[in-house]
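Students often ask why we bother predicting the structure of a whole assembly rather than each chain alone. The short answer is interfaces. A chain on its own may look different once its partners are present, and contacts between molecules only exist in the joint model. In this exercise we take two input lines together and write out one structure for the complete complex. Read the inputs first and try to guess which parts will touch.
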Amino acid sequence: MHIDRKEALRYMGYRGQKMDGSLQSLLDTCIDEVMDISKESFIYEIFDIERREEGLCLKGTTLILQGEDIRRHLSKAGKCAVMAVTLGLEADKRISFYSRTDLTKGLIFDACATAAAEALCDIVQEEIEAKAKVMGLKTTKRYSPGYGDFSIDIQKEIARVLKTYEKIGLAVNECSIMIPRKSVTAVIGMQTEGCSTKSHECGSCKDKDCMFRKDGNDDE
Amino acid sequence: MMMNKSFKADGFLLFDGGMGTMLQAVGLSMGELPESCNIKNPDMILNIHKAYIAAGADVITTNTFGANRHKLKDSGCSVDEVIRNGVRIAKEAAGDKLVAHDIGPIGQLMEPYGTLSFQDAYDTFKEQVIAGASAGADLILIETMSDIYEAKAAILAAKENSNLPVICTMTFQEDGRTLTGSDPMTMVNIISNLGVDALGVNCSLGPEDIIPLLARILEYSPVPVIVQPNAGLPTLIDGKTVFDIGPEIFGQYMADMAAMGAVILGGCCGTTPEHIKAIRKAISGLKPVRPEVKKVTAVSSATTTVVLGEEVKIIGERINPTGKKKLKEALINNDMDYLLREAVAQRDAGAHILDVNVGLPEIDEKAIMVKAVKELQSIVNLPLQLDSVRPEVVEAAARVCSGRPIINSVNGEVKIMEAIFPIAKKYGCLVVALTLDEKGIPEKAEDRLKIAGRIVRKAEEYGIDREAIIVDCLVLTASAQQKEVKETIKAVALIKEKLGLKTTLGVSNVSFGLPDRELLNRTFLAMALTAGLDAPILNPMAEAMVKTVKAYNVLWNIDREARDYIRSCSLSGDRPVVKEKEGSRDLKKIIIDGMKEEAAPMVRQLLTELDGMKIVDGYLIPALDIVGQKYESGEIFLPQLIQAAETVKKAFEAIKENMLQNAGEISRAYKGKIVIATVKGDIHDIGKNIVRILLENYGFEVYDLGRDVQIERVVEKVREEKAALVGLSALMTTTVKSMEETIKALRQHCPDCKVVVGGAVLNEDYARMIGADYYARDAREAVQIARKFYRCE
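Now the answer. The structure tokens for the assembled complex follow.
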């Protein structure tokens, strides 16, 4: 796993400001520390999609994916992979400690851990893409609960189906928040046709004022 | 107890194998609750039980692994009916075999990681235990635990709400630790002392990987050991999960484990009646082995075990308000961050165990102690020593402690032993025994030995092992009782020799009232160590003391080849030299550049000529405004803003410290009270912490209630402080609901206060919809709202 410095900076709302040496080195320290303490684990399963009125049912499971956006995302997919990744509890522990004793470090550490979780997703996605290829299929980009109208409440069900707590120690609380916090769930469609990669890129999001928005000016 | 009868028999006790695996084989969907079959398809469950009995199991496990209120919440089934049916079906199959009421993990992470509180976990398990016991289960199997804290809640629930024997197993990961970081020895040290009838390991990886874990457990477990491995590792073949170890090989592994000393055997994921049959066959010629168990005096946090007697262990004494003005203030203000910093500093300076004393007449000691224990164990992985003279405080702390703590202390007074020993027994704590009684501290070492002997005998009456007693022979001050100082040293040696107990001493008392205290302290420490002192209580920040311990470890041939000593000497040589401050540096510039370390010295310098308030108004606030503008214009980004804010905080602290000396003045510095919290269910608090520091920077008195804060708690605090402004944070759409409920409750109970809200998913309209008065887009805006509200500008 490799943490992209630029990505980490983007999560801190970085827009090319001048940074002094100590901030630079704090960032490097945090990147190293996140790499060091993360216990990356992941799990995914591939399911057939059955289109029903109530949503996209994943065969052999209790999962029903609901919402216009996920339906559109998987409109050409016959199968999909449901994945969950986590960096483990130590990252949470450190973020909570630093954010109380050294908030600057807490903030930077948090952003680095977010970038790490995304990097881990990329690795898992590659593995899924490779699997799809063997099956003669192409994949869509990953789509996570919370994007568009794909409700984060589905995370409870994803956790149940993938047994994320038992297998990778990932729990979802009553409010559908994942713990450990640096965790991601996502759905990747598998289909015969290639797909547009544009549909859910950062730039297509409705929130134009988002501080994390990629706008091409994020060079260091 | 039935279980004991089985243990005493010369045979093994054979459990059944996997249930989930069997259910999936007959078509249970992924995500479906296996426990619902107890109601929907009882015959299927009955047949599985029967198959295991036919395979030779002595105990069958009910299909109730996940039958808790959290997992069943949306299922339409009640905990009671699922468990009642589960036990009934098992009993129907069991005949003369035993029925184990199966209790698995709740499936939620507990505090401090998650939002499940210890009490909630306890109540959840209690409900299960009562249902299982009243339905007639023969014993309770708490299994596949991955968090020792949750295991503790379950064991307490089982023991407090039933008379059934309790077995507890945990599951370990590749690194040999549980999910939340407990190693096998730590697990044994905590769980066996909670009074379980058997303990062990299940699930985890394949049987081969379990063998080293089992070996470690057998080394220390005073109770029978159970092992229930998976049938190897799962692989996906044609969309089906298949485990790679067949019955015969599995049986062989189990026979090997039986030969090591495991007496209760069974299977977990992927095991079938065939696997159980294979175990029965493989162990048919074997007899149970009871391996030699090491008796140690060991104290544990959830993740670390410290054994006394091997080498000198330092107990850090600094979390104790006696004579510490700042800590006192922090405790009164409920400021746990200060406490945590003290804890971390002691750890980094070499402490192995932390003494925790929060006794102050002006605070609710019990509530603060519980909070302190929870906070400390969430951040520092050192074991704790719970230090209070009040039994109810000790008990509350021992209950929520996730490790095996030491209680500080009992003495030879019967009344005190009768109050403390039941607590120590129930929660499996170690106890510091002071060698004094109603008549005070005996002059002579021999008399102190007598008291220690009496304490041990009394402890044994309560079923507490002598290894759990750590004797403190009490240090007297050389200035007042010079001739008795050496009696303490003699007493340490005597107690080691005659009673074989571990010892502790609060070393620094010796020098009270004399000059160059450090010299006396470290000399006395060296003398006591030579006499056999195992765990001095001292200030680890006093370098000379820690160095004396290190030197002793070399001279007493404990630190072989002086490795640790040489390393620590070279480390202290590397310490960076603090640069001389340039006198001309401007405080404003220091803040704008975020030079955290330079703020306090500069403020102290300014305070020689200027009043604290003048520094606030003339330097801090203008600098903050500049930083704020830079942030808004995009010249700096968030970490830089925060760096500046932290610098202001340091400056502020230096000013406050100065004002503390002139009491009364401090209130003048505050511009208004604000209560802030991340709402119930939500655990994101970086944003809230940023708001807090900026508000503090601008002179507001901020009461930060933390994250996942119950609605009542917010209301209570706002009332208590008569705060006119409340800040609430929520990051998820799902927790905005809690925010709305919190606002509603505030409207009802504190109609005069105003509410400002913030968080990623909120906007102006949304904020209005849930009834907030103000919406702050970011922390800067929160400050502007507060300043306007309190008419600071």
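Check your guess against this: Confidence is low (pLDDT under 50) at residues 216-220 of chain A.
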